[in-house]
Amino acid sequence: MTDQDTPVQRPLSPHLQVYRLPLLPLMSITHRVTGVGLAFGTLVLAWWLAALATGPGAYDLFIRFMNPLGGLALLGWMIAIAYHFCNGIRHLIWDTGHALDLGSAERAGYLVLVGWLVLSAVMVGSALLFWLS
Questions:
Q1: Do the Cβ atoms of 51 and 61 come closer than 8 Å?
Q2: How far apart are the first and last CA of the chain?
Q3: What CA–CA distance (Å, rounded) separates 120 from 91?
Q4: Which of the listed ranges 18-27, 62-71, 115-124 does the model predict with the highest average pLDDT?
Q5: In whole angstroms, what is the distance from residue 95 CA to residue 28 CA?
Q6: Tell me: the pLDDT tens digits for 8-60?
């Protein structure tokens, strides 16, 4: 064995402070996360509908559970629906074989972000108008 006095200089892998995640993988991760969140939100929606059908006692239990953060959870659910919907349309376009090259995929990603922001603003704005009236 040889004895080295100087440490071996190896290249460092990029880490989270240096590496910038590209748009398309970030959108893919977000699509999966919103899908999981929507699944849990759908369970809460089913609980709400079952509580409505069961009677005042079950509905009161639901309201007590959801009261602290229920409006915020509904807001997050609406924003997740908007993103998942817009990105799902992009996936349907990809399923037809269109916009698969990198440039078209990135343009479609930016269109998804614009559509998501517009749809979220419309949904949140209409919910605020409903709650304030």
A1: yes
A2: 81
A3: 19
A4: 115-124
A5: 15
A6: 777 666 666 677 789 999 999 999 999 999 999 999 999 999 999 999 999 99
Across 32-110, the runs of DSSP E, i.e. the strands, are: none
- Mean pLDDT, range 108-127, rounded to an integer: 95
Reduced to 3 states (helix: H, G, I; strand: E, B; else coil), residue 123 is: helix
Residue whose pair of structure tokens reads 């309201």 in the numeric block: 63
Handedness of CA 60, 66, 69, 72 (dihedral sign): negative
Q: What is the distance between the alpha carbons of residues 44 and 51, in angstroms, rounded to a whole number?
A: 10
Mean pLDDT (the chain, rounded): 90
Tokens describing residue 14: 């990029």
Top-level class of domain 23-132: mainly alpha
